[in-house]
Design a protein that fits this description.
single chain, 3 helices, elongated, mainly alpha
């Protein structure tokens, strides 16, 4: 255990339960913020790789065709 971890535990032991609960909530908030930041970075990286492919844009009709095909496929699987 690091020195800072020992200090935090000692300080937490001195807090009333309600304050410890606040600390837990804050730590969970910080962790979720880090997770969101990591997800945003993965998305940014993925979009950059996709952009680097220089693919032609997809038309609205092509998107609609794909959606309809996926719906037909899902319905066919549900019917069997």
């Amino acid at each position: 255990m690091t020195a800072i971890e020992v200090q935090l535990i000692e300080r937490l032991k001195k807090l009333p339960p309600a304050r410890v609960a606040e600390v837990v909530d804050f730590v969970e908030f910080l962790a979720s913020r880090e997770e969101r930041a990591a997800a945003a970075q993965r998305l940014t990286d993925g979009l950059a790789r996709l952009d680097a492919l220089n693919l032609p844009p997809v038309s609205e009709d092509e998107v609609e065709d794909e959606v309809q095909a996926a719906r037909r496929e899902r319905r066919a699987k549900q019917g069997t």
